[in-house]
Amino acid sequence: MDLNAVRTFLAAAEAGQFQEAAVELSITQQAVSKRVAALEQALGVRLFNRTPRGAELTIDGQAFLPHARELLRAEERAAASVRPGSRALRVDVIGRRLVSAALLRDFYRTHPEIELDVVALVDIDSAVAAIRSGTIDASFRAVTMPGPELPEEIATMPVIDEPLLLLTGPGHALANARSVGLAELVGHRIWIPGIAPGTEWGAYYEDLAGTFGLTIEATGPNFGPDALLDVIADTPGLATLTGEGTRLVWPAGHGLRRIALHDPTPVYPHSLIWHRDNPHPALTALRTHLATTSAAHIEGETWAPAWARR
Fold first, then answer.
1. Which of 205, 181, 195 lies closest to 259 in space, CA to CA?
2. Mean pLDDT score of the chain, rounded to an integer?
3. Where are the beta strands (DSSP E) in the chain?
4. Is the Cα torsion angle 74, 77, 78, 79 positive or negative in sign?
5. What is the rounded distance in angstroms from the CA atom of residue 293 to the CA atom of residue 221?
6. 302 φψ region: left (φ > 0), alpha (ψ -120 to 50), beta (else)
């Protein structure tokens, strides 16, 4: 149904004259007549009786009137739902316990008036496809992965280089160390279940293991972080790696140790990616917030894969 014709019908119904409706809509009286005639033809009924005093609604016109008003209200709601700034900013954080989620929470505390919709997508290909299709507005990722470059329309900005920590149980050989050099990890088993092939963190850990001769295993099913912590606490021969900003909570009896790494400190390079043509004003606010939020200073040399965009 032509909503311009519906709008013209309403103007004529409220004015009671085609001429006044024409003035209100800034069109000619002939255009009003043509639009009303087209609407009548589409509906198969007469909507007005033309009289010397103007235009009076027929019984069918009176029946159609409330629905015509609802059609235009629906049009306004539809337009408002996608008007920049009127809908929630949708951001992918990969995982809700990761530092990316903490950064987004900090943004929300600073801007509580901004509505957010938080999602967790698995791999960068899914995130890029969602950004290009408009399903999400932005994503926290490590870019770029080895292989194809990001599409030209995808913009990026570095956000934070997050130091990795060694996480061990109380019986591990390194449990009492204040910090550990990467060379000291050679020969120790590092278990990170759930490393998905084709993901940027999969590429990251592959490069980390290959560069420093580490044994990083992804064997077995991934039952989530709580199950991982249970195993690490009870298995002296296993350790894992976790980001400094990753939010982990474990029972006091586990006695887990978070140990700093150095020489060099491995850092996970988080960036924000978004579509260059995205007009959402909250996206600009998020980028400004992330650009002005200072990251913790890291002493000494750091390491990240050569493919990571700095």
1. 181
2. 90
3. 48-51, 54-57, 89-92, 116-119, 138-141, 154-168, 179-181, 189-191, 215-217, 238-243, 257-262, 265-275, 302-303
4. positive
5. 37
6. beta
pLDDT at 143: 80
The DSSP H or E segment spanning 86 is none
pLDDT tens for residues 211-250? 999 999 998 888 989 999 999 999 999 999 999 999 988 9
Strands 154-168 and 257-262: antiparallel
Lowest mean pLDDT among 91-100, 201-210, 296-305: 296-305
Q: What pTM was computed for the model? A: 0.70
Residue 96: C-alpha distances to residues 105, 126, 275 (Å) = 10, 17, 23
DSSP state of 220: S
Angle at 258 between CA 256 and CA 261, to 5 degrees: 145
pLDDT tens-digit series, residues 52-96: 888 899 999 999 999 999 998 888 878 766 666 668 999 999 988
What are the backbone angles phi and psi of residue 175, rounded to the nearest 5°? -60, -30
Write out the two tokens for 106: 């900090």
